[in-house]
Amino acid sequence: MAMLVDPATTTDNPPLGWNADCAKVLRKFYEIGSADLINARSELRSLVAQDGEWGEEVQEVQDVLRQVDDAGKSHIQVTIEEQLKFQNLKPQAVWKTIFQRQFPLLLDIALRLLSMMTQTADVERNCKVQKVVKTKNRNRLKNKNVKMLCYCYANLRLLKRLQQELDSTDELEDFLESALILDDEEDTAMATEAA
Fold first, then answer.
1. Those residues with Cβ within 8 angstroms of residue 8's Cβ, 6 or more apart along the chain or in another chain
2. Which residue among 18, 83, 106, 108 is least packed, with the fewest CB closer than 10 Å?
3. Are 153 and 133 spatial neighbours (Cβ–Cβ below 8 Å)?
4. d(CA 46, CA 108)
């Protein structure tokens, strides 16, 4: 169901068994045999058919995501860029404003499912980094050391990507120096406010 309410991942051909899986989710929110359950199922069919404003939103979001340049990038890098672009589109806000009228019974479910997907992506990325850091040979690392190594791993990858974007080491050094100056200025301003 999460795939169906997300304009970035919904498709013209939903996976097999989508109707039964979605019915289980709807039964958790609405009583069996109630008018709300019947209406929620009809809203779901309209959602799958991509009727009205929903179909237009799906098309717009997927057009934006197709603009991600995947040349020379790994699948993970492309996925991260797509997720960042999708977050900038603010799907929860669109559901609250536009689709509240078209899908009033699915609104609460959609907002819950959209927020869950955002929350789990960071956790999965963190687990992947920990898998790289904590191997069979390094299985006795303390949590403090694993945390520091994950921090270093992630930040070194970010620096490497930033250096590729800036095209030279001099530009990277200038960028880091300016960032450190800004941090010093912010620390000084915070100390002044505290005093």
1. 61, 62, 65, 82, 86, 91
2. 108
3. yes
4. 17
Dihedral of alpha carbons 147, 150, 154, 155, sign: positive
Q: Give CA separation, 160 vs 94, 102, 153, 156, in Å.
A: 35, 45, 11, 6
Query: pLDDT of 95-143, one tens digit each?
Result: 887 788 888 898 888 888 877 655 566 677 778 888 888 888 888 888 8
Per-residue pLDDT reduced to its tens digit, 45-90: 888 888 888 888 888 888 877 776 767 776 667 777 777 777 677 7
Judging by beta carbons within 10 Å of its beta carbon (0-12, 13-18, 19+), is residue 185 exposed, middle or buried? Answer: exposed
Q: How many residues belong to the chain?
A: 195
CA-based torsion, 50, 105, 41, 24: positive or negative: positive
Residue 89 structure tokens? 């589109």
Supply 128's token pair: 């992947």
Q: For residue 66, which amino acid is it? A: R
72 Cβ neighbours under 8 A, 6+ residues apart? none
| Interatomic CA distance for residues 173 and 188, integer angstroms | 22
pTM score, two decimals?
0.54
